[in-house]
Amino acid sequence: MSNRNIAWLPLTSLVAALSFVALPALAAAPPAAPDTSFLPEGEAKPLIEAFCIACHNPNYIVQSGGYTKEHWQQLLTSMVPLEGTPQLETISEYLATNFPPTTDKNPTLISGDVQISFENWQMPTLGQMPRDPVEAPDGMIWWVGQWAAGNLVGRLNPETGEMKEFPLPARTLPHSVTPDSHGNIWVSGNGNGTIVKLDPVTEEMTVYPMPDPAARDPHTMVFDSEGILWFSVQFGNMIGALDPATGDIKLVTAPVENSRPYAMKFDSKGDVWVNCRNTPCIYRVDHDTMEITAFTLPHADSWSRRLALTSDDMVWYGDTERGLIGRLNPETGEITEWPSPSGPNSEPYFMEVIDDIVWYNESGKRPDALVRFDPATETFQSWAIPSAQGFFGGIARHGRATSDGDLLIHQGSSNNIIRVHLNDND
Ligand code: HEC
Fold first, then answer.
1. Which of 301, 389, 316 is CA-nearest to residue 348?
2. Residue range 145-163, pLDDT digits in tens
3. Which residue has the CA at smallest separation from atom 39 of ligand 1?
4. Quick one: which of 53, 75, 134, 394 is 20 to 30 A from 418 by CA?
């Protein structure tokens, strides 16, 4: 049997063939055979082709920039239940030999006076892609497990470390989670075009399907001060607003074709700012009319994922394509840019403003770097984002402030939720 055939065994045969380990419930096999020609021949190659294609393209191995054997083991056991198996030894030995740590992706870390510390938790279900941690009014931290191995919303008690995972309806594949002021937890059903409300007390879930099937992938969500849930619809190219009192959903199509509306945040007037993930624009959505105004970024190839606003209503965004951060002045349309410390391939991703300091990460780097930018002094400081297990992976995709001014982020590869304590200088 060729290696390629092994990769295409149905999952049930795989489990039988490799019965030393119980695979988590995974998505159906991907539609096209992923290319594994970059993997040198060896005993581990068919194992990798068996274990490492169910959740993501195996070329993540190359993109990671390489790890030591110990770090490969920590990474692999964060995704697949290989702990204590001989196969873990075989695969990690092979990966460390063929994909050892390189310096190619190292970030340029900037030292400085600010002291911070990281508090990491590892989530129960492996390979779930935990993301978008957020603090609820009662201090609990909620996250979602986006990928098929997860398809869940989880609650972490940061005081005790106790966690509970709530399975979501099939194919919800949640992108984000946000609490309302009553303590309900809202989840965007990126996989099946729904929004789900969880009552954590009764554990009852209410599903709100999109009224238009074209709105197929609800993405980021934010509540406004009146309790309306605003959300982006990335591939559907729309902005939506759901009224929890009536269940009514309004949808408006974005003015730039295929712009892929992504993250969203409010300004002090209550208008909504939204990134275009695919085109060089940022939108302002009028709170009352849902009319959308597009601001054009200065470079034709620019695109951004997330944004945040300082108290002067300046809009800060990371230009992922060009490795810059930018500030848009909504009054004048003027844009000012600063190169991210790690250069054009730094790939700024999440962005949050806390006490008028801009925080983001350099997701194209390993370690993924957490960056602090002070707009008043125009200075940077940065740190490698650690995992609970010890290796330095990625990728933080969303960061949100806690009520006491800390930052919540996450790391898909290590299956970690991370609280960054920003007040260590106090
Ligand atoms: C059950 C799902 C699942 C399986 C199976 C799986 N992974 Fe992953 N893997 C993940 C998730 C989730 C991430 C994080 C993706 C992200 O943040 O974009 C990840 C990320 C990675 C990364 C990137 C690490 C970095 O530097 O950020 C590598 C390398 C990787 N996986 C290798 C493997 C290998 C090798 C196997 C097979 C032994 C494997 N994966 C199997 C879920 C899985």
1. 316
2. 999 999 999 999 999 999 9
3. 52
4. 53
